[in-house]
Amino acid sequence: MPSKSRKSVSSSRQVKSAKVVSSAKPHGSATRASHAAFVPLLVFCFLIWLIYRMLFRFPVWFDETVGKALFFALPVWLYISMTGDKSIVDTLRPSKLRPGLLLGLAVGGAYGFALSLLSIVRTGSQVMFVPLFSSPDFWGEFLLALATGFWETLFFYSWIMVVMQQKMTNWPLFKQLVVVAGIFLVFHIPNIALRTGWLSVLSIGPLLFIFALGQALLFVRNRNAYALIISQAVWGMALLIHFR
């Protein structure tokens, strides 16, 4: 009798382990399938964004709010719905808001200071106090910069950077950072070329790439989307002030 009970226990354990293994296999295949859909979805996003930029000339506020909500946020929502990947949403967890705001202000201030020095070197202008914060136009532009930072952080870092690190596990970190920064630049080239001409790509392009590289490194170290949203908003305002 004891031997029979031992056999029944061992057989039940084997059945349970077999169920666990069999249930794990579909999960792995689903993960691979979701990663396989990442590149085609990304290419599709770029193509429709390029067509939108070439065919339509809406106001800047529309492009940075409604346009990017459709072409940047909607694909991310679709990807999350397809895969159930919680790591993308985790970058926007409410508990990360306060430390992200503080870090974003610090990094954004460093970006702004660097752009101010670059502007002084480039134009030879003098440093003067200008009460920009008292202007209503300043706060309108800043809200627009926040919207831009939110949609672009969600698309390029909370989605592309997160999936890149999950998918390209055999890539070194530097290669991942360069690829994400390159994607960021490629998505911005049409807007630069259409608004200011192709020659501007040669001057603004390297600046954007360095910025995107720094943002990617900041994201990898903290996985805090709020820090990138604020730092990009401050960076955008500095660009508007010094390079308009």
Could you please describe the fold and organization of this structure?
- By secondary structure, this protein is an all-alpha fold.
- The protein has one domain (35-242).
- The protein has 8 helices and no strands.
- Helix 1 packs parallel to helix 6 (173-196), helix 5 (136-167) crosses helix 6 (173-196) and helix 5 (136-167) packs across helix 8.
- Residues 4-30 have low confidence and may be disordered.
Beta content? under 5%
Radius of gyration: 23 Å
H and E order: HHHHHHHH
Helix content: over 70%
Spatial separation of the terminal alpha carbons: 88 Å
What structural class is derived from the secondary structure elements?
Answer: mainly alpha
Q: Report the major sheet.
A: none
- What is the quaternary state of this protein? single chain
Mean pLDDT comes to: 82
Bulk shape:
globular
Number of helices: 8
**Number of separate structural domains:** 1
The low-confidence parts are 4-30
Give the arrangement of secondary structure elements:
Blueprint: H1 2-55, H2 60-83, H3 86-90, H4 97-123, H5 136-167, H6 173-196, H7 199-222, H8 225-242
For the structure shown, list the relevant keywords.
8 helices; 85% helix
State the gist of this model.
The protein is built from 8 helices and no strands. It has 244 residues and is an all-alpha fold.
